[in-house]
Amino acid sequence: MKEQISYYENDVERRKKLKMFEERLEILEALLWAVKHFNQIMFLTTTAENVADAKKQLEDKYRFNKMQAEMIVNMRISRFTKETMEDLEKEVEECQNKVDFYKQLISKSEL
């Protein structure tokens, strides 16, 4: 019985971590895209009526979800640097590795 509980707790914890890393990866990918497409983001935000309109345009035109659009609109200009892009690329890779790891762990535990 203790083993079953421990297994269940581990599985629940793995799924929580997987979800957390998947959500973080989703945000990182959006931020990285924004940094790489700085001119498009600047044009969109400077021509938008307001912040809500900018978010809506990001969602409609580029298919970002609400959280991604929020994070992009809230980026500071200082974040649009080569260093930031490199940092984001590195974090995306690390996060993707963690997502893959937890997916693999979960799929093995389901066998």
UniProtKB/TrEMBL annotation:
It holds the Pfam family DNA_topoisoIV. Residues 78-105 form a coiled coil. One of its GO terms (biological process) is DNA topological change. InterPro entries: Topo_IIA-like_dom_sf, Topo_IIA_A_a_sf, Topo_IIA_dom_A. One of its GO terms (molecular function) is DNA negative supercoiling activity. Keywords: Coiled coil. This is Topo IIA-type catalytic domain-containing protein. It comes from Coprococcus comes.
